[in-house]
Amino acid sequence: MNPVNISLLVFMIGLYGVMSKNNLIKKIMGLTIMNGSIVLFFISIGYRKGGLAPILEKGTTGGIPTTIFVDPLPQALMLTAIVIGISVTALALALIVKIYSKYKTLDIQQLSKER
Amino acid sequence: MSIHIPILIIILPLLAAFLVLLTRKYKIVLAAVSIITSIVFTLTLSSRVLSNDKITYHLGGWRGPLGVSLVIDGLGFFFSLIALGLGLLVIIYSIPEKRYSRTYYFLLLVSLSSMIGVIYTADIFNMYVFYELLSLAVYLLIAYPKTGVTLRASFSYLIMGGVGLSFFLLGVGFLYAMTGTLDIFHIAERLPAAFNSSMQMVIMSFVLIATGMGIKIAVFPLHGWLPDAHSMAPSPVSALLSGVTVKIGIYCLIRVVYTAFSAEMFFLINSHNILMVLGVVSLLFGASMALAQKDLKRLLAYSTINQLGVVLIGLGIGTEMGLTGALFHVLNHAIMKSTLFFCAGIMITETGTREVKGLSGFGRQQPAITFAFIVASLGMIGIPPVNGFASKWLICLAAVEAGYTILVVIILVASAISAAYYFRVIQVLFSNPPEQNHIPAHEEGQVIHKGNLFRVLPIYILAAGCLLLGIVPALGISLAKPAVSLLLSYVVP
Q1: Do residues B215 and B318 touch, judged by C-beta distance below 8 A?
Q2: Ranges of each domain in chain B
C-alpha cells in the first residue's frame, strides 16, 4: 500500500468525522485530519526512493543534479498549508468558545433547535 | 512603476488594511482611497486588456514554471472590476454605521485584496492560499455582530468552506503529481500528455476541484451553508458575499475548467453536462425554496442559489453566446443582488423586522428606495428594460442554438417562480401598515438618519447601473467579450 493511497484513506476518515460527528470540536478534529492527510499526500508525491535533500554543492556542473533528489517544492507548499490549517483551526476554536458561552452546548443537534 | 501595477493593485488594499488598524479617525478615508487607487490602476490597464493583450508580471523576476506570476487577461480584468467596484460601494454603504470599528474595515480590505489575488494569480497553489485568506476574512465578517445566530452561521460556513478548500487542494495535488508544475498555463500545456497516460487521475483532479468550488458556489446539494451565512451577516457584508465572494468561486471554476483542463478534455469527460445538470437542479431548488421563505434576507439568499444556476447553465452550454450570457449574468447578478441587499438593510433598520410581512407601508414612506428595490427585482425576474433580461435572453438563445430547448423551458419556469416571490415582497411594500406591534429585530442598536446620503448613494448608483445595462446591454457585453474570446481560444486548438 503506497503512501498516496494511505493519505486518501486518511482524507476520507477526516471527511467522515466532519460530516457525521455532532460535537463541534470533533468536527474541527476531522478538518484537521483532512489537512494532515493532504500534507502526507503532497510529501509522498515529492518523495523519491533513496533521494537526498536537494542541496547543490559547489562543483556540481551547471546545476544539473548528479544524484537523485527529493522534490523540494511540495515540502515548501506544505509549510504554507500547515500554517493556513492552523489559522483555520484557531479561528474555529475561537468561534466555538463564543458559541459555548452563548448556548452552553457544543452539540449541533441542540444548537439547531435554538433560535 | 508601470510594470509593477499588477502587484500594486493587490498590495495597496492589503497595506491600507494594516494602516487602518492604527488610526481611528481616518479609517474610512484610508479604506476608500486605497480601493479607489486600485480601481484607477486597474483602469489604466483596460486599453491593453480590452485589445486581447495579456499582462504578465513575474514576482521577484522568477519566470514560470518555477516562479509565481500574476496574469491579467480579459477574464481577470472583468472579475476584478466587479470585485473592486462593489467593494468600494460596500465601504461607502457602511460609513453611517457607527458600530463598525477599525477591525471591520480591516477585514473588508483584506477580503478585497485577497479576492484580487485569487483573480490575478496564475499559480494554482497561490490561488488556494489567497482563497483561504479571503475565506478567513469572510468568516470573521459574518460573525462580526457576535450574536448567537451569526456565530452559528459563520461556524457552519467555516466547516463547509474548510472541506471545500481541502478538496480543492487535493485536486491541485493531483494536478501537480501529473504535470510537475503549478503554473496554470504550463499545466494546460502538459495536461494532454498526462491525459493519455493516466486518464483516471485527470478525472479525479477535475472532480475534486469542481466539488471544492461547488461548495463555495453553493450548487444544490452543497448549498447548506449559504442561506444562513448570507442572511445572518450584516447587510453590507451580505451584499459583498452574494455579489462578489460567490463570484470568485465561479471565477476559479472557469479558470480551472477552461484554462487548465483544455476544451478537448472538457467535452471528453462530459463535464459540460455535469455543469448543466447542477445548474438546472440548483436553479429549480433555489427558486422553490425562496418561494417558501418568510424572512426577507433569507429569500434573497435562496434567490442567489437560483441565479447562480442560470450562470452554471450558461457555462455548461459552452458556446460563444452561452459564455457571453453567463459572464454578463455574473455582472448583472452582482449589481442586482447588492442593490437588493442594500435596500433590505435599510428596510430592516427602518421597519425593525426581518419578516416580509412587517414591511407593509414602507413603499409609501421611502418611494426612492422602493423604486430601486423594484428595478433590481424586475431584473432578477428578467423583465425587458432591466439588465437581468439581456443576459437570460442570451443564455436562452444559446440553449436553443446548441439544441437544448428543454433548458429554455426550465429557465422560464424558474423565472416565473421568482416573479411569484418578488411580486409578493413588492405587494407587501405597498400595502397598508398594520397596527403598531413591533417585533424586535436581529440587527438592533443602530441610529441611522433617514435618507443618509452615504446609505442611499450606492443604491442609486447600482439601480442606475441596472437600468443602463438593461437599456444598453452592449456595454456589458463588450466588457465580457475579451474574456469570452480568451476562453474560446483555449477551446479551439
Answers
A1: no
A2: 270-493
Rounded-to-integer distance, Cα B134 and Cα B3, Å: 26
d(CA B186, CA B260): 8
Sign of the Cα pseudo-torsion (B275, B280, B284, B287, in order): positive
Domain count, chain A: 1
Give the CATH number, domain containing residue A44.
1.10.287.3510
Partner-chain residue, chosen from A11, A15, A95, that has the shortest CB–CB distance to B158: A95
Spatial distance between the Cα atoms of B240 and B246, rounded to a whole number of angstroms: 9
Give the containing element (helix H, strand E) for A65: none
> Nearest to residue B348, comparing CAs of B369, B379, B375, B377?
B369
How far off is chain A from B371, nearest CA to CA, in Å? 33
Report the alpha-carbon distance of residue B477 to residue B468 in Å, rounded: 13
Q: Is A96 on the interface with B (CB under 8 A)?
A: yes
- Chain B contact set for A31 (CB, 8 A): 159, 162-163, 166
DSSP string, B129-190: HHHHHHHHHHHHHHTTT--HHHHHHHHHHHHHHHHHHHHHHHHHHHHHHHHS--BHHHHHHH
Is A64 part of a structural domain of the chain? no
Predicted model pTM: 0.91
C-alpha cell at A88: 483555520
What type of residue is B332? N
Q: Could you give the C-alpha distances from B138 to B81, B144, B255, B365, B441, in angstroms and in order?
A: 19, 10, 22, 34, 23
Which residue does chain B place closest to A47, by CA atoms? B177
Interface predicted TM-score (ipTM) of this complex, two decimals: 0.92
Residue A32 lies in a domain: yes
Chain B, window 72-131: residues with a beta carbon less than 8 angstroms from a chain A beta carbon: 125, 129
H helix runs in A1-115, sequence order:
3-20, 24-46, 72-103, 108-113
The answer to whether the CB of B283 falls within 8 A of the CB of B309 is yes
Q: Which residues constitute the domain of residue A94?
A: 3-48+70-113
Dump pLDDT digits (tens) for B100-147. Answer: 888 899 999 999 999 999 999 988 999 999 999 999 999 999 998 888
DSSP one-letter code for B449: -
Q: CB–CB of B411/B283 below 8 Å?
A: yes
Render pLDDT for B215-249 as a digit per residue (tens, 0 to 9).
Answer: 999 888 888 888 888 888 888 999 999 989 999 99
Which candidate in A5, A32, A45, A82 is best for mutational testing of the B interface (most B CBs within 10 A)?
A: A45
User: pLDDT digits over B317-369, tens only?
Assistant: 878 888 899 999 999 999 999 999 999 988 888 888 888 888 887 877 888 88
